[in-house]
Amino acid sequence: MPTVKDVAKRAGVSVATVSRVLNNSEKVSEQTRQKVLKAIEELGFKPNLLARNFRKDKSNLILVILPTIANNYFARVVKGIEDTARKNGYGILLCTTQNSPEIAAEYLKLIERKQVDGAIIASAKIEIDFCKGLDTRRIVQACEFYPFLDTSYVAIDHKRAFYDVVEYLIKKGKKNILCAIGNEDIPSEFERKEGYRKALEENGLEFREENVIRCSYGWAELYEKLKNLCCLKKYDAIACSSDLMAVGAIKAAKALGLKIPDEFSVTGFDNIMMSRLYEPSITTVAQPMYSIGEKAAQILINTLESPDTFKKQKIILPHELKTRESA
């Protein structure tokens, strides 16, 4: 692969002159510029735009931090981010943390090093001790909001969304409703649990901590927990914090011979494609995944392009209950 030195040698100029041409400097005569451009074309030289941008303290890259890429939910969020970034001349750098705050903190250091211009944190777990000294103007939180990181954010009202789906189950005649959530250190999971509690209490039903099942967002762990729950048949529904959890709940109910939704109803959360294709199709809360990514990216880009007019934004997008066969 030809280098800047090769171009300089072919054009009969210095490396510094080639650099000036690449950066559209006015300190180069038109004759010299044409010689360099001709050498670039003849050699098929591809300038390292990223390295040039680093020297300008601007990378035109947005860091996107996710907990995992295994959940289809994030695909739509990232699509919204990427489409908006590309329209505005930015690329994205996608990183996953496996829910490690330490890994998230390491990635965020790329902002300080000027290797990325800013970051969108999409549900990745973070902790206050790892976020000191960050320029929060250059960070937007999406899907999730950690209050100690005082940034703009785009999300839904998780408490209200879970309230709505639990109240729907109650109106369907369900009285003994389980709740399956993830780690309550994640703000949205705590909010969903509170939505579950509020829906029960406002409809005259007792909230019991033992009816809250904590597990990962995939299907397998909840499947095993429910299948081995000897008293599952005394319950008539479960509200799950992800569509994949709902798949595990349906599989467990079927394994125990329960008829869905008559004897046992199941709801999910997110409205990923699987929720529509699974048998039975899953009643779920639809998050506007693409719009969350799109708006988060636009907020960040607006800040990067006009930092002097920065204004923190808190955007709550509407959710929608999708009623299907499972409840």
TrEMBL record:
Listed InterPro entries: Cro/C1-type_HTH, HTH_LacI, Lambda_DNA-bd_dom_sf, Peripla_BP/Lac1_sug-bd_dom, Peripla_BP_I
Segments forming domain HTH cro/C1-type: 3-50
Domain of life: Bacteria
PROSITE patterns xrefs: HTH_CROC1 (PS50943), HTH_LACI_1 (PS00356), HTH_LACI_2 (PS50932)
Full protein name: Transcriptional regulator, LacI family
UniProt keyword list: DNA-binding, Transcription, Transcription regulation
Gene Ontology terms for molecular function: DNA-binding transcription factor activity; transcription cis-regulatory region binding
Domain HTH lacI-type: 2-56
Species for this entry: Caldicellulosiruptor acetigenus (strain ATCC 700853 / DSM 12137 / I77R1B) (Caldicellulosiruptor kristjanssonii)
Entry-linked SMART domains: HTH_LACI
